[in-house]
Amino acid sequence: MKQPDLTKELLILALLLVPMAYLAIIWNHLPTAIPAAASPLGSPEIRSKSDFLLLMIFLFFTNGLLYFLFRYIPAVDESQSVPKGEAVHKDYYRIRFLIHTCLAVFTCVIIFLVSQGNPFVMERWAFVGVGILITGIGLYLRRLKPNNYIGVRTPWTLQSPQIWKETHLMASNLWTSAGIVTIIAGFFLSLITGVFIFFFLSIVLAALPYIYSFRLYNKDKG
After folding, report:
1. Distance of CA 125 to the CA centre of its chain
2. How far is 47 from 73, CA to CA, in rounded Å?
3. What is the structure's pLDDT at 1?
4. What angle do CA 193, 203, 141 make, to 5 degrees?
């Protein structure tokens, strides 16, 4: 497997840090009370800075989770690696740049809107945006071919093209469904409830495909 490109990794990490730095710079200038759009019942809503900080932690966590999923989880054993060329390596970084750029821009736009005092349902925008991203990743996983860079790279998927295919079909359905649920939940759940549910959901999205590939391997072995 080709070694990670240090320069590109640093650029991706910079994309993770840009929204945090932006928030830190303007934090003291944010309004204490953040006006929100009217609730479904028609009553006006007011958010505090602590609510907004929780939302930002949610977005920062999502960005960091996706970084570690693509970069480190799971580590690839060289003896089980699938030989692939330079094109796949470039696609790997292209996809990661796209994901983290979209999240960085999206997060900075929310921070800017809040700093301007514009009324909007900030958690709805955040959950919908993250849900669309998760759905897109889920749809992409469905057509992903065996490689060492992107996808559910377990020892068992790398050994068997069939296990790779079945695992990624399952992961695609799981991520796509989770993304759609996240989008819908953004219109109904409160900020705190939605954040904690997503934290739990992120563990499920990372763990279930790994466990599923292990079970498929043991099933094939009888």
Report:
1. 15
2. 36
3. 47
4. 115
For residue 125, the model assigns a pLDDT of: 78
To the nearest 10 degrees (0 to 180), the angle between helices 161-185 and 191-220 is 170
Q: Which residues of the chain, if any, have pLDDT below 70?
A: 1-4, 35-47, 72-88, 118-123, 221-222
Report how many domains make up the chain: 1
- Strand residue runs (E) in the chain: 33-36, 45-48
Round to whole Å and give the CA distance between 16 and 125. 19
**Which residues span the domain enclosing 23?**
6-220
Which has the closest alpha carbon to 102: 83, 119, 118, 126?
126
d(CA 58, CA 123): 10
The span from the CA of 78 to the CA of 191, in Å, is 43
How remote is the C-alpha of 217 from its chain's centroid?
27
Name the amino acid, one letter, at 97.
F
| pLDDT confidence of residue 103 | 87
In a domain, 82, yes or no: yes
Query: DSSP per residue over 111-123, as a string?
Result: HHHHHTT----HH
Residue 1, domain member (yes or no):
no
Amino acid making up residue 221: K
Q: What is the pLDDT of residue 195?
A: 78
Q: SS3 for 36?
A: strand
